[in-house]
């Protein structure tokens, strides 16, 4: 990847007074401004740390899909999703959301997409997936070995564990949206249970009163039928992108015009591309610098 630009000027969304605990070098990777007054900012670093540097009240809406528990390797040290314990994973996510909370406006909302994981505990590594390098995890995953404290073959219940932890932390859980994919990947090796066809999108608010535009829901309520994108800037890569239509709906419902969207696990950049096209500013945090390079290139090409 050729993009190596790092900007030294502070972007609009960064607080000039970083959190005292901050011990990472300047996370600003690249940023730009549009003629319509919006801006985009790519920040490279650990979302738990970098989120705490965002200026208070600078974000209207968070839309994100963090790494799922033991599903992929994003090939970067410090990545979430490969924690040896379920609690470790839940703690990393709850700390990230606690860190970004001051940056969210009082009337701001969070859309959090999470999928679940089975505890197979077979004692041998997960089968190889030749098509997807990122789905090949080295050695024994925590969900392959003993010691997770659940009966073998359990659905772990990851999305709800995270949702309840955030609720405990003071987030108001407003909806547990079911995102249905008719063309979900089949699971032919699972002969004694239904195959998975849905994931969760939790809607949280910071306060009891918040910005929400029901017209943005396009006539659907808490079951969303959205198919994966055939054509996407992030498709064919190993970012595990979610569909643009999913982001469009979240923005239409949860971010005022001219507002700012944050994705603390921005991956291939879907959230930023859609926000940009919908006239919203965007901030993306990503640990893998190669992904930051790709997003920055695409953002510069878009206009
Ligand atoms: C599921 S992907 C996001 C895909 C994105 N929604 C898209 O449409 O392209 C999750 C991303 O989180 C990143 N990530 C993992 N741990 C992180 C951390 N601690 N801080 C920031 N990013 C992290 C991974 O590198 C990966 O790109």
From TrEMBL:
Keywords (alphabetical) are:
DNA-binding, Methyltransferase, Restriction system, S-adenosyl-L-methionine, Transferase
GO term, biological process aspect, one: DNA restriction-modification system
Per its record, the protein catalyses: a 2'-deoxycytidine in DNA + S-adenosyl-L-methionine = an N(4)-methyl-2'-deoxycytidine in DNA + S-adenosyl-L-homocysteine + H(+)
Which E.C. number(s) belong to this protein?
2.1.1.-
| Protein name, per record | Methyltransferase
| Organism annotation | Nonomuraea terrae
InterPro entries named in the record: DNA_methylase_N4/N6, MeTrfase_CN4_CS, RM_Methyltransferase, SAM-dependent_MTases_sf
Top-level lineage group: Bacteria
Q: Extract one GO molecular function annotation from the record.
A: DNA binding
State the family it belongs to: Belongs to the N(4)/N(6)-methyltransferase family. N(4) subfamily.
Region spans: Disordered: 1-35
């Amino acid at each position: 990847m050729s993009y190596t630009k790092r900007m030294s000027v502070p972007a609009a969304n960064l607080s000039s007074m970083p959190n005292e605990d901050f011990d990472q070098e300047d996370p600003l990777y690249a940023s730009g401004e549009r003629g319509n007054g919006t801006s985009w900012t790519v920040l490279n670093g650990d979302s738990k740390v970098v989120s705490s540097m965002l200026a208070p009240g600078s974000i209207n809406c968070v839309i994100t899909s963090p790494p799922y528990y033991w599903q992929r390797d994003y090939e970067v040290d410090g990545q979430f999703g490969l924690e040896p314990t379920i609690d470790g994973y839940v703690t990393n996510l709850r700390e990230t959301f606690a860190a970004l909370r001051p940056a969210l406006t009082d009337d701001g909302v969070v859309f959090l997409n999470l999928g679940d994981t089975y505890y197979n505990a077979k004692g041998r590594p997960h089968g190889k997936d030749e098509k997807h390098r990122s789905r090949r995890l080295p050695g024994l995953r925590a969900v392959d070995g003993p010691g997770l404290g659940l009966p073998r073959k359990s659905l772990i219940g990851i999305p709800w564990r995270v949702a309840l932890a955030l609720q405990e932390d003071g987030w108001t859980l407003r909806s547990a949206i079911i995102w249905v994919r008719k063309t979900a990947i089949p699971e032919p090796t699972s002969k004694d249970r239904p195959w998975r066809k849905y994931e969760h999108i939790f809607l949280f608010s910071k306060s009891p009163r918040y910005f929400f535009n029901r017209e943005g829901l396009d006539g659907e309520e808490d079951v969303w039928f959205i198919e994966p994108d055939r054509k996407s800037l992030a498709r064919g890569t190993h970012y595990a992108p979610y569909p643009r239509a999913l982001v469009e709906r979240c923005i239409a419902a949860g971010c005022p015009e001219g507002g700012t969207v944050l994705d603390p696990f921005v991956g291939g950049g879907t959230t930023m591309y859609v926000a940009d096209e919908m006239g919203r500013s965007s901030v993306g945090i990503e640990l893998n610098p190669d992904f930051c390079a790709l997003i920055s290139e695409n953002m510069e090409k878009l206009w």
